[in-house]
Amino acid sequence: MIKTLGIVSLSSGIIGEDFVKHEVDLGLQRLRDLGLKVKFLPHAQKGLDFIKEHPQARAQDLIDAFADDSIDMILCAIGGDDTYRLLPYLFENNQLKQVINQKVFLGFSDTTMNHLMLHKLGIKTFYGQSFLADICELDNDMLPYSLHYFKELIVNGKISEIRPSDIWYEERTDFSENALGTARISHPNSGFELLQGPSQFEGEILGGCLESLYDIFDNSRYQDSKELCEKYQLFPALSDWEGKILLLETSEEKPAPALFRKMLQTLKETGIFEVLNGILVGKPMDETYADDYKKELLNIVGGDLPVLFNLNIGHATPRAIVPFGVHAHVDADKEIITFENE
């Protein structure tokens, strides 16, 4: 049972800004109503500019969160786009390794980089939700499907299985105080969709946001992301990917099909598609380019590697929570992913 939760801002410092105070207050109350104590790590609420300019402070918050024995779970405030800059402050002198211990870590989007950092140190993490994006949902309650998985995680410290949501929601355009108490527009959800390969496969899951993974190999967003990620060997070795299931999902930037193809091709060139046991792909936000993405996946992945599409994982709402580092059994026919928890 999770009792104390530590909130960190590892990418964006938005939760320190006045214009989201109504969301933060709402989320805090929800966490307290769930019986949780909440600690904001010292720099988490310093705002956008401070967080952008001080990667060392962000890194220190992560170190402190692991070092603090009273914190049972580390929750990322939100994603962002430059958490790769924490690498030197976590790994140059084994700073993070000295305090690392197994505790629940939850985040998604650019937090993909942090998941890979923790994977390097043998930590099992959870992908799929964040404080601002999920706990601070502006409706009268958290989205029921998202809440189901969050409650399971804080009560049991694990996720037992994932099934599709019956509905999906359009992304909000208004996050102001005027939107408090307003419902999202919803649509029926079609469930898991097997694009190719056997309907059953298994392995440990690892991966995350496709754009963040692409930043490991490409400097078009940041001029030094490729060099830093190479220096600290952020992308796991091919031997580490052997037998794993790759999780991929796209961000709110809704990459055009040509960019989606380019990013997939870059991953293919690492050789991982030759050693994986399968690929899971999250529903694109607002289902934008869904059919195009399916075509690109089939064209680029090739072979008979199982590709399961339209999971409620990543940037589209509602969101499940995916355990990394736990053996998973995928059954596309029964539309269920089960996890072998100890």
Automatic annotation (TrEMBL):
Domain LD-carboxypeptidase C-terminal: 202-330
Single annotated GO MF: carboxypeptidase activity
Residue stretches making up the LD-carboxypeptidase N-terminal domain: 6-128
Stored Pfam families: Peptidase_S66, Peptidase_S66C
UniProt keywords, alphabetically: Carboxypeptidase, Hydrolase, Protease
InterPro entries: Carboxypeptidase_A_C_sf, Class_I_gatase-like, LdcA_N, Peptidase_S66_N, Peptidase_S66C, S66_fam
Domain of life of the native organism: Bacteria
Protein family: Belongs to the peptidase S66 family.
Protein name per UniProt: Muramoyltetrapeptide carboxypeptidase LdcA (Peptidoglycan recycling)
Lineage, opening ranks: Bacteria, Bacillati, Bacillota, Bacilli, Lactobacillales
